[in-house]
Amino acid sequence: MSDVARIAGVSPMTVSRALRNNAPVSRETRERVLKVVRQLGYVPDQLASGLASQRSGFVTVMVPSLNNPHFAETVGALTDLLATAGLQVLIGHTEYQPEREEQLIATMLRRRPEAIVLTYDGHTRATRSMIEASGVPVVEIWETPRRPLEHVVGFSNRDAARSLAEKLIDAGFRQFAFLGESDDKDTRGSARRAGVLAALRAADLPDHRVLAFAPPPITMQQGTRALPEILERWPETEVVICVSDPCAFGVLTECQRRRIAVPGKLAVAGFGDFEISGISVPAITTVAVDAQAIGRKAGELILDIRAAEMRGVRLDRQSIPIHAVPVLREST
Amino acid sequence: MSDVARIAGVSPMTVSRALRNNAPVSRETRERVLKVVRQLGYVPDQLASGLASQRSGFVTVMVPSLNNPHFAETVGALTDLLATAGLQVLIGHTEYQPEREEQLIATMLRRRPEAIVLTYDGHTRATRSMIEASGVPVVEIWETPRRPLEHVVGFSNRDAARSLAEKLIDAGFRQFAFLGESDDKDTRGSARRAGVLAALRAADLPDHRVLAFAPPPITMQQGTRALPEILERWPETEVVICVSDPCAFGVLTECQRRRIAVPGKLAVAGFGDFEISGISVPAITTVAVDAQAIGRKAGELILDIRAAEMRGVRLDRQSIPIHAVPVLREST
DNA sequence: CCAAACTATGATAGCGCTAACAGGTGTGGT
DNA sequence: ACCACACCTGTTAGCGCTATCATAGTTTGG
Fold it and tell me: B257: which chain A residues are within 8 Å (Cβ-Cβ)?
């Protein structure tokens, strides 16, 4: 930077100002400086900038898995929105393990993020206290937690799943099975299960057919392996609601291999409205969630938080609702 | 840090040393310091550390899209491997646009990454020169470029696709169509198309049935829309090779909707061996690539590069091959 | 027993940038 | 002519760490 300053005949401070777009520099000086910047191929050091200004320019985002189109869309939308304000995203993947989340947060806090975005799946006590102690604003997404840390951009997985089950009850189904996860305390998966079971109980229908098949995420592959177990234990099952679309697709394909008519003999539903659910034959009934909107709105919220900080105030707890609506398709 | 030092009765420098695991500090001093660190909940500032030590601890990774299980797996494996050495990944998604890659690289270089990983899809002249000027080591993945920037961890998309086509020719197919991307200069997609066409020409088969359907990535949805166009233009087609598995799946489902027997009437093949290809009914013929291995080996290479740097030398250009093998399944 | 070598710790000086304030110049109002 | 004010630029002093060298204490070996 001092090289640039010398050649442009100004002080380093003026170079620094010329490189921002809201600093008071005369038009001609800025142009002269930027010309030298281009000539020299000077690349400002944002670590140093962050240290001096106490603004790292980072936002930490924790998702359970990268390998999930939904979280990818959310992160993508968030990344793009924050980029408009010069913020960069640091991604961590927890693999659905709260302990891993804790460890990742500890690492991330060293980067002095300006905000933390957490995909709700329960947090350890240590995670909560680390975040609180750091004073960094937090946004929880993809759920409306009972005990939110601070801001929320999400929907009730329980209510959404309940509403799906209710529609299927209305459609005449009576013998439900739920294919879900094991190890799912305080997760979105357990909320979905709870929602389905609540609907069944409210309609006086049997609610005992719950298969806790494997730790999250349940893959397509595991969906294919779960079907025989369901058929064996509860041959009277009329419809299987799966914790998410990929395992619903696995169940569907296994039905096809076994020549079980869907929905004639067995109906299948998922959760999330992944692209595959609309494409597969038959198309899969599911709950549609706008994953991109979650990322976008979380990003907008973070910009609001920063704007408030500039004015010296802390934004009140926000809770931004996201729509999650059942979509009945051919598979039911 | 100076608070910790004062309470532990040592100098800040000793605290700094105690927090690393290879620095010369007596066991008892380190324990005393770490105890105070825990008591105070002190979190070291890695921006400051990076500035002082000239090691940011960042590795930049560019992928075309996050919303692609393959790149997600590659990034995941890379992230985990680098984490073992305390390195953190900065992810950028180019959306398959070289100009966007250029813009992202410019941003990323401000973070002073210790290495750059690029998923090959062609680079602008400016990208190449920025990277060269920065002196940061580069690893290109998912392809073996003709003009590599430096290191490579990948395979020949051309050869892999050619080998798939050859197997299908051996299996008796004669009338091939290729469903690929538009705007695909210097991309993995164009290499795959070239490989297929080379196989056809070598076998004296017609190579004119090439549909450049849309800019990458071609989605499942677009696969369903491409099928009618292929059938209309070239009704004699016996097999469609798709640039990647998702669009092959789209083609397959559209065949099912139109009651076109696969593979009886039309065969379908993809590229990449996504989970869906092994699960769908019929299972889809494809080229299997170990996406995680690419991430893992790229990570190991980066650790080698750093180890060499410590010894004051620059690692010779490495080119680490990845296997990509055709897998014939039910769809052909 | 003493030089040489090694270990643990401290003091000093930055890393590359920006916040905060100081100062100089020009403009317009009175 | 003077003051108030806006506008632009420079000076100074860090941000929170670590590299490097210095130093004191301890061990080793001939």
Answer: 281
